[in-house]
Amino acid sequence: QVQLVESGGGLVQAGGSLRLSCAASGRTFSIYAMGWFRRAPGKEREFVAAITWSGGSTNYADSAKGRFTISRDKAKNTVYLQMNSLKPEDTAVYYCAADPGTGWGTGSSGQGTQVTVSS
Questions:
Q1: What are 48-90's pLDDT values in tens digits?
Q2: In this structure, which of 22, 25, 46, 60 has its CB flanked by the most CB atoms within 10 Å?
Q3: Nearest to residue 19, comparing CAs of 94, 88, 108, 75?
Q4: C-alpha span between 95 and 46 (Å, rounded)
Q5: Closest residue by Cα to residue 72 from 95, 60, 99, 54
Q6: 55 DSSP assignment
């Protein structure tokens, strides 16, 4: 099993930036991809961005394209989400997840980190 711990959330004004980190431990060799999801108040969890662990291929939700960048440091078993030009609608709990290659629902997820963007 893979354990995931997020950090880097906080309160920021609209237009500002934050960088989220997610440190993986345990059976990290089983990771095919890592991703970020978020859940805003009263809404369902939604996909934000993902990166394949080996090749570094990335995928973004339309809401994240051009503003967010996902990256990973394989030596540190850590994935990052650089968020720029933040908007109040980006306010949510952000979760890191690991896909073992059989789907996000079959892998691990972190406890989440709160991001609040004030207008």
A1: 999 999 999 999 999 999 999 999 999 999 999 999 999 999 9
A2: 22
A3: 94
A4: 10
A5: 54
A6: T
> Which residue type is seen at 89?
E
85: left (phi over 0), alpha (psi -120 to 50) or beta: left
| Residue 25 · residue 41 · CB < 8 Å | no
Nearest alpha-carbon partner for 47 in 57, 56, 34: 34
Taking alpha carbons only, the member of 18, 27, 9 closest to residue 108 is 27
Provide the percentage of residues in the chain whose pLDDT is more than 90.
93
Instruction: Report the alpha-carbon distance of residue 58 to residue 115 in Å, rounded.
Output: 22
- What CA–CA distance (Å, rounded) separates 109 from 20? 15
> Is the separation of the CB atoms in 96 and 36 below 8 Å?
yes
Question: Is residue 74 helix, strand or coil?
Answer: helix
- Whether the pLDDT of residue 105 is over 90: the answer is no
Q: What is the DSSP letter of 15?
A: T
The one-letter amino acid code at 52 reads: T
